Amino acid sequence: MRARVAGTYLVGMTAPSVSICPSCGASAAGRFCAECGTSIGGATCAECRATLTPGAKFCHRCGTPVGERGRRVAGERGLAGALPWAVAAIALLALVALVAGQRIARTRPPATTAVAGDDAGVQSGALGDASRAPVAAPDISNLTPEQAAERLFNRIMASFEARDTARVQFFAPMAVQAYQRLPRLTLDERYHLGRIGAVTGVAQLTTAQADTMLRIQPTHLLGLLLAAQGARMRGDESAARAFEKRLLAAQAAELKKQLPEYAQHANDIARAIDGAKSRGG
């Protein structure tokens, strides 16, 4: 058969058959309608390879829409094409972050080495301003929970006496957590916790421990002086004076008990009594 193209005949070529789309009525050549995608004849499902009925828009075997496979493959190709660009962008960001980190490290002053041991955190050869020296926690890994809490308390009090606020603020959270982990606090341990609140300006912590101590033992000297401190921190001078009066009234009888915590904190008790007397308590 010869097909005429542009006024001439080409031998050996067959003119494509033209059909009418059973769905939209458009002229269609091949196995699918170019207008609506409906199968014309002899078409097969691209998913399960079943022969499609002319006019079908879905495969009767697997339900795949006619032409769905082609669209899916095109989408996968689009993602595959975008993947190399995404990887390149991530690599570029990582490189920028690395360069920025190296520049910051070059501009940062060299770190100083802290001296280990009981004076950990004091720089070897540092100047007299200890608050500028690096701060490091003492090694309490081999201590009991009670010993660890007391060690931190002593470190805070020593730093407070030295007016080293940096170390006070550094050790205070660790000490509070150490005391909170103890199964049951003694009156002495509650006083320690309240004093940490006093030197760090947390009136709620100081007041809470003082209230608990006085609820257990209403004339305990450490509980009374702690309660006065908490009231004064809250700005309640009247309540502070009232606690100081109770302190002076209980002083003689309480000191005769010779409680271990009274001996341990004798300086605190003496200062509180002197202050109460000077204020006319």
Give an overview in words.
Helices cover 54% and strands 5% of the residues. The protein has 9 helices and 4 strands, in the order ββββααααααααα. The strands form 2 sheets. A two-stranded antiparallel sheet has the order 1-2. The protein starts with a strand and ends with a helix.
Low-confidence stretches: 1-16, 69-77, 99-133
What's the name of the CATH homologous superfamily of the largest domain?
A: Tetratricopeptide repeat domain
The amount of beta strand, in percent, is under 5%
The helix content, as a percent range, equals 40-55%
Radius of gyration: 43 Å
Q: Architecture of the largest domain, according to CATH?
A: Alpha Horseshoe
Strand order of the largest sheet: 1-2
What is the element string, with H for helices and E for strands? EEEEHHHHHHHHH
Average of pLDDT: 74
| Count of all domains | 2
Assembly context of the chains: single chain
List keywords for this structure.
single chain, 4 strands, mainly alpha, Serine Threonine Protein Phosphatase 5, Tetratricopeptide repeat, two-stranded antiparallel ribbon, two-stranded antiparallel sheet, 281 residues
